[in-house]
What we know:
Layout: E1 2-4, E2 15-18, E3 21-24, H1 27-30, E4 41-45, E5 54-57, E6 63-64, E7 67-68, H2 73-84, H3 90-94, H4 98-114, H5 119-124, E8 139-144, E9 152-158
Amino acid sequence: MNLYFDLASPSFSPLWIGPGQTAPITPDELREPAVDPSITRMRISHDAIPDWPVVIQYPDNCTANITPFHITLGEVLYLIHSSLHTQITHQDWARLSMSEETAIARAYTRRCKSVPSTAKEQASQGVRRIDYLRGKHIFRGLIRTHDEDGFYHWKLITS
C-alpha cells in the first residue's frame, strides 16, 4: 500500500491506497517514528516556499519513562499540513511578481472550488501557503538533504 495525502484538503486525512483498497492511517501508525533511526529534530522545506520551513524539535534531554522522544509520522504529516494551511500576509503577497500573483491566484481558486461544500468558507479565508505550490499538493515523500545547524534537513516532494 502507498501513502496518499492531499495536502490541499481542508481536513487532515492521509490514507493508505492499494489495488482496489483504501484505508486511513491508524493512530498506531501515526505514532511510529518518522524515520529510522529515530530523530528529535528536523527541518522540512519545499523548493516553492523555502522561506517557510517546517521545524520540529524536541530538547536533547527530553525523555518520558526513560524512552527518548522521537519525531513521529503523525507529527511530520500534521505539521506539514497545518503549515501549508497558514494564511499568507499582505507583505507576502506584495513580494510576488505579477506572473506569480496570477499563478497563485489560480491555484487558490482551484483549491477553493475543489470541495464544493466548503468552497465559500475556504475562499473567505484567503490565500494560503499551499497555493504557492500551484496545484502540486499531493504528498510524494521527503528526501534527506544536507544537514546543518544540528538539524536533519528534508525536502518535501509534491506533485
